[in-house]
Amino acid sequence: MSSSSLTLPASGQAAGRNRRLLEILGGASIAATYVYLVLAQPTDLTNGLSSGSTLLALSGFLLGAVLLIAGVLPTVPTSTLVLIPVALVLNIVLGQFIGSTLVPFYLDSVGTVLIAVLAGPAAGAATGALSGIVWSLFNPTVLPFAAGAALIGFLAGLAARYGLFRRFYLAPVAGFVTGIFAGVFSAPIAAFVYGGTSGIATGAVVSAFRAMGDSLLSAITKQALLSDPMDKAIVFSVVALLVYALPRRTTLQFPFIRRHRVLAGAKTS
Amino acid sequence: MLPDSPAGPGGLNPLTLLSAAVVIAVTTTAINSWAVSAAVLLLLATLLALNGLGRKVLPAAAVIMVPFWLSLLLTHGLFFHEGRTILWTAGPVRVTAEGLQFAAGMGLRTAVFVVVCLAFSFSVRPADLMALLTKYRFPPQLGFVLCSTLTIAPAVSGRARRIAQAQQSRGLVTGQGAGGRLRAVQQQAVPLVMALLHEAGSRADSLEARGFGGRGPRTSYREVPDSPAQRIIRWLAVAALAVFLMLWFGPGWFTPGGVR
Amino acid sequence: MRLSLETFYYPGEDRPTLQGIELDVGASECVLVAGGSGSGKSTLARILAGVLPGRHNGALTARFEVAGESLVFSGASSVNPRINPAVWNRHIAYVGQIPSAQLSTVAATVAEEIAFALENAGMEHGLMKQRVRTTASALGLTELLERKPSELSGGEQRRMIIASAAALNPATLVLDEPMAGLDADARRAVENVIGSLLDRGAGVVLLSPELGGAGRLAGRMLLLDGGKMVASGPRPAVLKSAWAARLPVIPDPLDAPDRAENILQPPCPTSSARTPAAALGGVVYRYGTERRRPFLPSRKRAKTPTQTVLDGVDLALGAGERVAIAGANGAGKTTLLRHLNGLARPESGTVRILDRDIAGQSVGNVSADVSYLFQDPQDQLFERTVAREVGYGLPELDPAAREAAIKEALRRCGLAELAGAHPYELPASAQRLVALATVLARRPAVLVMDEPTVATDRDGLDRLAEAISQESARGAAVALVTHDLDFAYRHCNRLVLLSGGRIVADGPFARVLERHFAGGEAFGVQAPAAWLRRREP
Fold it and tell me: What's the domain range around B153?
């Protein structure tokens, strides 16, 4: 029966290995770029910013994001794939809306975290990276943060995988921790590529730290640590609310949810 | 890049536009001087205005850049304690020439990047991009996500509007101001996401039933304009960029602190 | 193509959604699978499409014979074959229910949408161009080829998606409710498309709650009830079987003369109050008069030239009246309804509800007196249980009265047992009933409904008809926009015809029919079959 032309053979091993390789290369590229940036910033940022580091940061993160996408996307089942555009639209719409207000949050990762909870860390990371790339078609300043968005998607997927969405009060905690990672990760990007933040509210926080005598990088990092954990705690709670409001037949069609019992309550609707 | 953008100016291939955009953005970032950035920005604005794209690109860029500049001015204009040439001081506020120069350098450099990227997005059709990705054997899923996001965006906003109307028709009175709008967003989020997930399920069936995601090679109905001349120009541009970067940064590129 | 299906279970459910189905389709043959809402039609369609059980991981026990191969699925065991959709669709193609949700969203023109399956099959470019042309001309889509898919009407989108599925010349096409929500012209166009497919030698499986319409193309049919096949055979024989009368399928108005003959027009309300419940006076409305907020800041909306939708409409709805509003697509029917609760605001003219001008009142406030039933139930269901849904936005009442109002509305719509279910998990017709219950619970003075009969099975239609008569007996004014004049003829006493944004006829139902429908059709609307037959000597 496996010789039938109407059916698929058992999954190809070689193709799978190539994809894994792409994922690992992507992750490694992002990690190496980050390490380089952190080590290579002894010359004070503000003392004539090194444009080489900027380009390296941009290209390293972008390359990593693209490799991740190329590795993950072909393995995503169509039923998950069609959700990614929906998630990106949610990200962009909420992100633009919040960005236009004077709130020092972003809320631009609701869609990414939603996909991560429904379909796992790999799909979450790819969605985050894609979100940065697609959004940059409207707002190019978010492009360098694509790698950071991928990290958020990945961590959210891990949180779901290990049951942190089974209890409602654990979701914001997981979000808070994710936010710490995300903040520490994205601060050097903001510093090296833009020399600051892109919003007025976040800019005000940075200047407050600068006024207290901090260096630019540490001011931006502190700002990120103020904004990001709260932001992600809110986002994770919103997503928890959403997934528990969905009909069970909808959530149960995702193998990731079934296999790792991501959501609590087998009988509640 | 919008579903109804015009074809590339003068029948240019999106890759040609992309390579031009990359060359401009990378060189200005590498040179990193506010004067050069300002000159490039002026040149770009003139080009776009002549092309007719300026009316779309420049306002969109302004929406992004104005808050960004204000943020930079706030951060570096007022508090730049590394600065030596003090122009004005009051309490913790210290306006320095170095601070202003830093803000101007960063602000203008980013402005070039933003304008160049937006000019690219506004002159490329998503369907062309999908066709190109297919031609160069990228996974079709990538083209799908890029294209689909841009086409469903208006449909999503349409659905959000219908949900808001249905809720109002059943007695929901939304308050005024930011608080009221936030509450309305929260009320709409759950039904909107449910409806979108549901629709996405049907779309998955339809895509799969038409053979999307199969393992075989994919072809494209759409033809994207291209010419040997453009192909040569693209390669030349990329090669020139590589040579420039090598000369500009010299051999000490990778050593920390060895960069200019 | 041949399918013998023993059972199909969705994951985590202990009752099979489908069981005991035998289906075979030959070349140029049309088979109708009829059943009420929730009878398992869509699940069967998706099994035929090859997307189930793969996607939901359900358990299928069945045997397929397709293109000379036979595939055996044996329940939950792990050795089941995995269907390769990219090859499957060359033999069996599938078109789902909601046309806008079927768009590939990557095609900039209709031609590219039709080519989508060909692209995925890796067809060579020249051949593909030719195939798109021949498919489009065979199915009458040539004029649409350069249009944008998202800007087509529902009927045009449906024809395009059918063409896209048919472009690979599959032996069998599976069409899930291809007529839902279409007006007379669009239905005819889709019927022609199905006829052309049959002429080209394709077999067609039609899944629908309607026995008439495109169902008349079928030589054989089977009836589904609760996921079981209860009757199958040649169409005339199955139509005569007891099951056809018992199931909530919608009879063919041309097939069932004896049932239709004894239709009585509902009586006109006797006590006409002095002031109407709702009144439009000289309402003019144009597109472009309302400013919409752009979706993304960088997105420039294409400026649409202002187009007059309503051009001086005067209409008064008396208490207890049941008014049907009909007209071709684009005549302004829905826009007219939207003025009644303030969703649309007139450019000039007045809207009065219970003798009060609603200009300046928010929609939320008007909703105390006017209830609106939208066309798409999924736009108006937001809660996670049916009971909470019905209670949403109910005026402040004490808890006991509120509870009673919810219970009563659920009972009238036959939803008492489903109070705890998730509205989105219900079949389409039950979703429509939930939406109806939310409207009934509010006991409005004016009840407006947009195409309430679409995607509703016979049980739903009966509940709807009962609700209309009870509400009007209570003294509410009921207005419904519909293209289903067969339903309206039975349950409304006044007919308003719209054309080009103006009211071109208004009066007692039978009189309007006599004056305008001598030819059987007027202003893009088809006269009710029952009335036409009664006219015949």
Answer: 138-209
